[in-house]
Amino acid sequence: MGDEDWEAEIIKPHMSSYVPVFEKDRYSSGANGDAFNRTPASSSEMDDGHSQRDPFMRSGFASGRSLGNRNARESNNKRENTTTGGSFGVGKGFGNRDFSNNKFEEGDSSGFWRESTNDCEDNQTRNRGFSKRGGYQDGNDSDASGASRRGGRGSFRGCRGGFGLGSPSSKYEQDEGTQRTGGLFGSRRPALSGTGNGDSYQGRSGSGSGRGGYKGLNEEVVTDSGKNSWKSEAEGGESGDTQGPKVTYIPPPPPEDEDSIFAHYQTGINFDKYDNILVEVSGHDAPPAILTFEEANLCQTLNNNIAKAGYTKLTPVQKYSIPIILAGRDLMACAQTGSGKTAAFLLPILAHMMRDGITASRFKELQEPECIIVAPTRELINQIYLEARKFSFGTCVRAVVIYGGTQLGHSIRQIVQGCNILCATPGRLMDIIGKEKIGLRQVRYLVLDEADRMLDMGFGPEMKKLISCPGMPSKEERQTLMFSATFPEEIQRLAGEFLKAKYLFVAVGQVGGACRDVQQTILQVGQYSKREKLVEILRNIGDERTMVFVETKKKADFIATFLCQEKISTTSIHGDREQREREQALGDFRCGKCPVLVATSVAARGLDIENVQHVINFDLPTSIDEYVHRIGRTGRCGNTGRAVSFFDPESDSHLAQPLVKVLSDAQQDVPAWLEEIAFSTYVPGFSGSTRGSVFASIDTRKNYQGKSTLNAAGFSSSQAPNPVDDESWD
Ligand SMILES: Nc1ncnc2c1ncn2[C@@H]1O[C@H](COP(=O)(O)OP(=O)(O)OP(=O)(O)O)[C@@H](O)[C@H]1O
């Protein structure tokens, strides 16, 4: 059971031969040997499997309707050489490197993917529980020698074989592109099933979809008493494995001083423009929007906290969601990235709790929180917790956060001291419930942040288990709230199981649309030119904070190391790094010590980091929704930002159509070459990615009675509603 956003990091089934992928490229004359080709070959992968149903094509994209506003840049209409050198180390070995001299030592081509004997030490180390998984090490790691640092940062260390794949001994391993005997993905756990899938990735819920989630790395062992079926190994229980070292990491407590608790960044110049965004509320008897915090009638302590947090004006999603939640209604809310969804659910929940005269929770072996908030990644849930702590400051409401990668005992200790609001990643939550430290009888509010992610094939099964856990109030007895910037149709339908029939749907702007405060640029860059281009861009950017997204964990390490060698202070975050390292990396990025953060999808959603001015998609994601979330790490809360994406026609063509749509809708320039690709890749029935359903209807329910379209200030608008409305979706 995982608590991370993993779909992009699953080893791809198309890696079906043991020819090292880079060499394969070479020998296949570049036909399509994209080592990082993300187009799943198998329809069993969800993205692909759903790709036949993208409503975009049904909506008449082929007519070019959505392209009307573009101002195509001819200057971009130039293909880059995709076959030049500067590749990702064709035949070069990083598996058996020695970084003691702060540089990669190249192995021979045959050793590129092979287990190096040098890896053994690391493997043993990990088996003893002192793992250093990510080859790349932060400069402030205590055991990093000063000599090995570069540009103020650590360089790669260890001999873990970060880029090596062990020699597969079976077809299975070859197909999965993984290995069990060490190397990057090896030796975390013993084989879990008869299939020989002993690598670190495990399909969620044993679906074997090849997509499911990350199985918590070295998660602390929980002995399954047998009571809790959801924890069974077959179901992907994160803790069902009785092998392996325990996780001992205890995250440092957050600062307790008031200044730190209320630290915030400034809203940007476009904050007031939020008022112009059209908002659509569908469902029956929606309470009217509020226009000010005063209208919410919150208690004085909450109002004080809101003021200390620097909030003077509501964002659109807050104007609509707060009264809906205060009225006790279930809600599915979709609003653009960085527009204040967290406060939109936290404030009314806290207001309810205060109004109901919540009593301070005391030390108890079994805690019964009134509110459970789940989110897909550890860093995000921690951030939500900090927001909950901020807004509940000075009240008797106690928020607690628990997530994987940390010592389970620590989570338990936090909980038993009292818990009104439990912020949790799904895996750790189920573990704690299984340990009977959390009772669900008192749950009045269940919040799914990044709800589409929480309900998709990755986390959906766990969420279903959560709502069917003994004691969990039925949907009629609890209030269920879902928030995200994207809500594909299919996921909306699934959500019905969690929500009361009369839930309200709030759509701020375009469902799944990109934030307009982000200036988006798409560059056509072949995979072998990407590094050069990246360095060029980063050098121009200077010290401005930049997130660079790549598609795999090993590539994150690779690029981070490469940038360090180019003397660009960089850190990285991905799921193969230990939690301590992840938090350190995020901290270094947040404080500006490392202005560049190389990340996988694990950092795509929700993270709210001050002053991120640029997002670079070194690799485009598989789905357009993920693209929207990634670029939403910049341009937050009315601030402006820039996103540059490298589009490799070899691997990204399937994204051309949805990208054109997202760009057009956000009134961005659409390069003519991208349009060309979009049109030329059109195949009747092709629909791109399901998760890329930026084209989802506003509210998938048939019943549109009671629907009202208003601008964010709460007034009826005579303007045409959200542009997607004119599509016939149903
Ligand atoms: N009314 C407000 N006034 C000022 N700042 C606000 C307001 N509401 C939220 N913010 C700030 O805006 C930032 C973004 O908010 P938040 O992280 O909740 O966005 P989000 O919509 O959840 O984004 P994402 O879709 O990326 O998860 C945060 O720093 C938050 O404190």
From TrEMBL:
Residues 533-678 form the Helicase C-terminal domain. Residues 709-721 have a biased composition (Polar residues). Residues 153-165, 205-215 have a biased composition (Gly residues). Residues 47-56, 71-81 have a biased composition (Basic and acidic residues). Keywords: ATP-binding, Helicase, Hydrolase, Nucleotide-binding. SMART domains: DEXDc (SM00487), HELICc (SM00490). Residues 291-319 form the DEAD-box RNA helicase Q domain. A motif (Q motif) lies at residues 291-319. Transmembrane segments: none annotated. CDD domains: DEADc_DDX4, SF2_C_DEAD. This is RNA helicase. It comes from Ceratotherium simum simum (Southern white rhinoceros). The lineage of its organism: Eukaryota, Metazoa, Chordata, Craniata, Vertebrata.
